[in-house]
Amino acid sequence: MKKILLSILAIFGITVGGKAQTEELQTGLINTLTITANRFEKSNNAFLINIIKDNVVILQIVHGGLIEQARTEENTFNFSFNVTFDNEKDNQNRFTALKISKDFKYYEWDGIPCYALNVGNDKNKAEEIAIKILTKVYGFDSKDLFEFEIYDQGRM
Predict the structure, then answer these.
(1) Distance between CA 95 and CA 85 in Å, rounded?
(2) What is the pLDDT of residues 83-100, one digit of tens each?
(3) Helix 25-40 and helix 123-132: axis angle, to 10°?
(4) What is the pLDDT of residue 74?
(5) d(CA 109, CA 111)
């Protein structure tokens, strides 16, 4: 998944770098989404949030302007998901079995199944969806420790 979105972001000339914060999943998500909204909503800067477990990016939340399938006409600040399943059929099946998956837009990128969803500036909905994906699809516990990275991708 990291490879796919980073490849997509490379098209936009985006550089990735920064220090991760380690926290329990739920606490870390709440803090990270709040920091992101406080920092980027007024300026409408694009952003990238990496949610990392054991040095692997498991899930990303980004400004929808970075994903064609999540972009809006106004391109205002939002939390968007781009969930990919590169050779992960079991995880994809668990994802599509979730009720929330019906809200995602399916597309393929270079033959890889992808699902995109823009939840606007609703931090609670972004948190709820991220936790469902991480616990129900990938089998993590909400008390597991994760690393959270936030990257400023510049003005939209």
Answers:
(1) 10
(2) 999 889 999 999 999 999
(3) 140
(4) 84
(5) 5
Distance CA 107, CA 97 (A): 17
Place of tokens 């099946």: 93
The per-residue pLDDT for 18 is 53
Q: Which residues of 117-141 are buried (b: 16+ CB within 10 A; e: fewer)?
A: bbbeeebeebbebbbebbeebeebe
Length of the chain: 156
Which residue in 36, 31, 61 sits closest to 133, CA to CA? 61
DSSP the chain: -HHHHHHHHHHTT-------EEEEHHHHHHHHHHHHHHHHTTTTEEEEEEEEETTEEEEEEE-GGGSTTT--SS--S--EEEEE-TT-HHHHHHHHHSGGGGGSEEEEETTEEEEEEE-TT-HHHHHHHHHHIIIIIS---TTSEEEEEEEEEEE-
Tokens of 15: 């550089």
Q: Chunk the chain into consecutive blocks of 10 residues (it has 156) and report each block's average pLDDT, rounded to whole numbers.
A: 43 43 91 93 92 94 87 88 93 97 94 94 96 97 93 83
Place of tokens 């936030």: 150
